[in-house]
Amino acid sequence: MLTPNLSYANLKESYLFHHIAEKTGAYLESHPGAHLYRMGIGDVSLPLAPAVIEALHRAVDDQAVKESFHGYMPECGAPFLREAVAGYYAKRGVRLSPDEVFVSSGASDELGDILDLFDRKNRALIMEPAYPAYVDANIMAGREILHLSSGPENQFLPLPEDGLEADLVYLCSPNNPTGAAYGRDQLSRWVAWANARGALILFDAAYEAFIAEDLPHSIFEIPGARTCAIEICSLSKTAGFTGTRLGYTVIPKELERGGLSLNAMWVRNRTTKTNGISYILQRGGAAVFTEEGQRQVRENIRVYRENARCLMRALDQAGIRYWGGRNAPYIWMRCPEGMGSWDFFDLLLREIQVVGTPGAGFGACGEDFFRFSTFGDPADTREAAARMLRLLKK
Ligand code: PLP
Questions:
Q1: Which uninterrupted H or E stretch holds 133?
Q2: How confident is the model at residue 394 (pLDDT cuts 50, 70, 90)?
């Protein structure tokens, strides 16, 4: 008889967004016609940039004509997109060869799939609070997980301490949910730690485009990272591709473990397990990296940043302590007067119709905190900020 992957039995029920939907649904049922100010979910609200839309339309037309039609695409990505991504890194002084860039259908897909490269006996170190998929993907793979907790004491930016041992470490900067972003010296410590013991950093750069201060956007801005890191990135938040799906992963040629090249292993993996990403989507993605595309996606990011500023102003005026917001589309606040994060969720919904995300959904050390996403509608965000100020100042 078939034996399933029994590790799935070790997964905890993923009830965060389901529970939020249940609570907001119940509120709307008992308050018909009420308007909710939704700042919970980390999904974008602005449409794709015009340059992307034009490129997608042109690519559809290409597929209608024999001479420009494309069948299967190269499994690791179209050369035009791999080159465009390498060019984007070059602007920040990071030199990549296009064949170190792998086009993917998004960061989530890649964060799960890439685990194929590592033996299950490797120990994964996951900073907490964290994007829940890191933990779940490793539980599914039957891997031992070590939690690296973070909090106000280290500004939610944990560093390797003496005696810390692990094989695979997840770093997400800017971070979801805390919005904290590592500086160069801090990332250099992680790189030195990983190189010293042959560990590997999985660097999630999904929110790099939101960095406003002088902070690294890529782990490969740090000397030594090419021998100890893989970077996973996505156009979801940068360019509004959450429903369109496109991302990229960088695996340097120098990266080897056990005498094997991880870049070559990933080529082998992709050529076996995928038949590439749609030509149409890759043309749309390449448009993000044109001058026009960059200008347009930055305009959308500017709107989200203004949302962040508006919420931060309200929290400052209310005297509430928070992290993030400056280099990330998330604001992570401490719940008032020792309230738990679900109690605070209920209070905001009941009193001011604002919906956020309880920190408890991101691991045990999130319990006293609450996340606001700044991806919402600007008018709603302004109203939510005004309502919060009135409520929290009381
Ligand atoms: N990584 C982080 C930290 C995220 O917050 C998210 C989505 O919210 C993802 C990855 C997934 O991105 P994608 O839409 O490319 O799958």
A1: helix 132-140
A2: low
